[in-house]
Every structure is written in structure tokens, then in C-alpha cells.
Amino acid sequence: MAARSASSYRVAGPERTPGRVRRAAMTAAAPILKIRLRFAKRGDLRLVSHHDLVRCLERALRRAEIPVAVTQGFNPRPKVTFTLSLALGIEGCREVVEIDLTEPLEPAEVLSRLAATSPPGLEWLEAEPSFSPRAAQAGAVWYCLALPSDRLAGANASLAELLAAETRPYARRRPDKTVELDLRPFLLDAAIDPEGVLRFRLKVTNSGAAARPEDVVDVLGLSDLLREGSFLARTDLELTS
User: pTM for the complete prediction?
Assistant: First the structure.
């Protein structure tokens, strides 16, 4: 399928100055050589590690005959960038990956080819061109956890206490080390909806210790649910770029 020019995807905006017009014209003439995709990782695939997911996508790209660019050096790798890795066991509903191409290809064509060559559980939802030289960055992420009816009262009380607090020191203990952090600044929003699903939004940071969704579940006294077979889902990534 022939690739459309970038101008096909441009939306109307405010009136531009001559300088902005020149920059817009350059963007409009640029071929689509980078695709940003939204995908879901569901079912048994949530038990696949991030490393194995990368290999799975690389195989799907080869089978789909998508012209993926590769890195330079002695060990060239496909230029495929995941915005955030997903911890083992967590379902992903709207994850983000970017793919650099060696020749123009329409986002819809990339989406269609990947859908035809990917294994069950790897679902391709959206595709759009990206003209940014930088990889997409996430500012916040949403998670959810379905709660049993007999745990709702206690969970609501614990959540209200957590949201009312200005600080919430937390220690994440491992056999080899203990990570201490203030959990409260990372929790941007949280609620239990009428269906009994805990939904919460966490701040993403690239510096220092960061909160994990399991930390929030632990503070609310719900970690036993994860040990007994319930699982978290990451329902959205909010991008800053």
C-alpha cells in the first residue's frame, strides 16, 4: 500500500507565523519513518517477561515484512522502543511502542500487518506517525485491580486514610536490600468504582526510587489478593511527549 505524506495526518491549529509556516511545510513534506503504536498484552501473555515480549515483537515484525531500521555497531538490533516495560504478571491495556522504519509505510498498514502476524494476547489497537526525534515519555500511568465484595469496606477505609495523608513512608523489602520511599507524592489519583474495581494513577519518574503498583496494593492491605491469583492491569499510559 502506498504511503501517504505526513500532511494527511495534520490537524488544523492556530494561525501560524511565517517561521511556523516554513517549519510546518518541512514537516508536511517529511516521509513517515517512525510509527507510534498502542497495544494490549492480555491473557497468558501477561506471564511473558519484557525481554521475551521484545523478541516476540521482533519475530512478528519479520513475519509482517515491515521495513524496520536497525542500530549500528557489531550487534545491530531493530529500532523498537517501548515507552515503559511491564512487570511480569501485569496485564497491559494501552501500552506504547515506537518503531523506526527504513522506508515510508502508512500507520494503518503497519497496524494491519502486525495484527496478522502476532500471537494471541498481543493486540494492536492504534497507530500514528511520530516526527519527534525523542522517544515517547510517560508522565503517569493508570492501574486497576478488581476487589472481592467482602473487601470493599476495608479497602475504602484504607484508601481514604491514604489519600488524606500528606506523607506515607513505605519500605519495599527484598532478600538483598530494602528500598525506602514516600509513597504519597506518587499517588496522583485513586478511587474504588461502583463495580468494586480499585483504580489508581501513579506518577512516573526517571530519577530515584519510584512507587510501584504493588506498593499501593500493599499499603491498602490487599497484597494477599495478588498472591491468591488476582492480577493488576495497567490500563493507560499518559504521554508527555
Answer: 0.84
CB 170 within 8 A of CB 179: no
Q: What is the DSSP letter of 78?
A: B
Model pLDDT for residues 7-64, shown as the tens digit of each residue: 344 333 334 434 444 344 444 557 889 999 999 999 999 999 999 999 999 999 999 9
**Residue 1 in domain:** no
DSSP string, 26-53: HHHHS---EEEEEEEE-GGGGGS-HHHH
Residue 174 has which C-alpha cell?
A: 527484598
Between CA 143 and CA 188 the distance in angstroms is 12
Angle at which helices 107-117 and 50-63 cross, to 10°: 110
Q: Is residue 118 part of a domain?
A: yes
* Rounded-to-integer distance, Cα 217 and Cα 147, Å: 11
Number of domains in the chain: 2
C-alpha 16: how far from chain center: 33
